[in-house]
Amino acid sequence: MAVKKKTVKKKVQKAVAKKMVKAAKKTVRTAVKTVPTQTNQAPVNRRIILRASHIRKAFEGNEVLKDVSLELHEGEVMLLQGDNGSGKTTLINILTGNLMPSRGRITLGTDPNKIRHFRFPIPFWRRTLSFTYFSPERFAKEGLARMWQDVRLFSSQSLKDNIVVAKAHQRGENPLRALITPWQIDKDEATLTQMAKETLKKFGLEGRENSSGSRVSLGQSKRVAIARAIYSGAKILFLDEPLAGLDNEGIKQMLDFLHYLVKERNTSIVIVEHAFNIPKILDLVDGVLTLKDGVITRNTKEEVFKEEVKQHKDAMMEWLTAFAGQNGRTDVLALPNGARLTIARKDPSAPSVFTVNNLTVSRGHRPVIIEPLSFDIHKGDIAMLEAPNGWGKSTLMDAITGVISPKTGSIMLHGEHITNWPIWERVKKGLLLSRSGDVLFKSINVEENKKLAHVKHEELGAKFLKRQAGSLSGGENRRVSLGLALYQTKKDMVLLDEPFQAMDTAQEELARGKISLEAHNGKTFLITIPKIYE
Q: In this structure, are residues 52 and 95 in contact, taking their beta carbons and an 8 Å threshold?
């Protein structure tokens, strides 16, 4: 009997073990099926806060957005990229209530009881209430905010007042209440002012509360604009080139600021940024939305940034080397504080046109170019100054053109000392500066801007001659500005301050070709670009 019991016990143990192994294998198979794979999708743990479905938009028969669908999750940071004219600005205008799409649907919110649906075209019965149904004010109320490329602060108001004004539904906005209960209004304003001061302190602007909007740096004004949006209750931010024009310290502060918004406040952010600055936001973004041919695709940041580096890292040097050709030369001059000057000379026997000797420059009491700067540029040269943001590229341009006086050193143009000449005399001598940023008169069209600049070149602005300059996109604006500088016949020494800003890769290549052609015709160029690759 004992032997039989042992046999039965062993059989039971084997059966149990077999079932356990079978169950374990099933568990493993199930686990393998459910393990998330590496895809381009957003993290599964974040709730969707914004969804756009099948958005379409056409202008005068030209369909810019054909079928755009996207999702944005809580605390997610996305880069929105695309060629000039691809529709980035149009899409942002739609998603912030500034432009009505032809068709599609927009859904906002995470709370099932408070989700807002916007369908297009708007039903007939809602059209009479369209100002409340679809408008920037309505979308701001739902938690969307936008920082424009040209920062829009109230220049005559203090920073704290710029913040306070963003708070909606203040009792003081009602004239009747202001008359009947002025003490309550005063109390509310004191509370709002204190909250504004605390907001500015959190965003690194303590001590600047009473500074006017016109007396802060570009980086600080951008932080104020974002702080104002957060103060108004924004949960989603659309930022148009937040790093443009900032020096290294400003870029660091802005990135730290955006990291804080994402980590501490769970803010969702969509960023449109110029190609030169894309590598700097690598650690911030979660993914990339690429707008092309009227539709959007979602990519991983790694594959996009790898492509950006591949396209831009050596593009400038390859261009200058090709311009110089086999009979010319390309010299690289190391300058102080990490800058370098690359001079492409097609004709080694060409005479000298422009010389800077032992130049130092200050802005007011603040030294900018401290170590003496010297270089010589000859006729038909293309000289490219590559320096970090904050190095003093724009300050150097201002000193060369006479906007500010150098502290020490001399400047020569066509063999004459122009160091102490007024601006207009330098212009008469053939010197021209095209500044970075917006240099057009926004209230008139492109053709009228051409006439003011005495440019008759047929190619310039042919596609949008009748368009108001203020309606141009960032890339279109830069193309027109560059053309106004290139095609002025009496200017043979041309200074271009970051001319490729806001251009996509194809437009950059086209612009470089036009500069090369003008240099072949005898013009001389000094070009500045930010240093983004070591």
A: yes
- If asked whether residues 294 and 369 sit together in one domain, one would say no
* Cβ burial, residue 296 (10 Å; 0-12/13-18/19+): buried
pLDDT digits (tens, 9 = 90+) for 288-312: 898 988 899 888 877 776 666 556 6
Write out pLDDT tens, residues 405-455: 999 999 999 999 999 999 999 999 999 999 876 688 888 888 888 888 888
> Which CATH number do you get for residue 513?
3.40.50.300
**Burial, 168: exposed, middle or buried (Cβ in 10 Å; 0-12, 13-18, 19+)?**
exposed
Helices (H), 391-458: 393-401, 423-428, 446-452
- If one counts every other C-beta atom within 10 angstroms of the C-beta of residue 304, the result is 19
- State both tokens at 285: 């973004």
The residue segments making up the domain with residue 473 are 313-530
CA distance 136 to 131: 9
**Could you give the number of structural domains in the chain?**
2
Whether 291 and 168 map to the same domain: the answer is: yes
Output the pTM of the full model. 0.60
In whole angstroms, what is the distance from residue 276 CA to residue 312 CA? 8
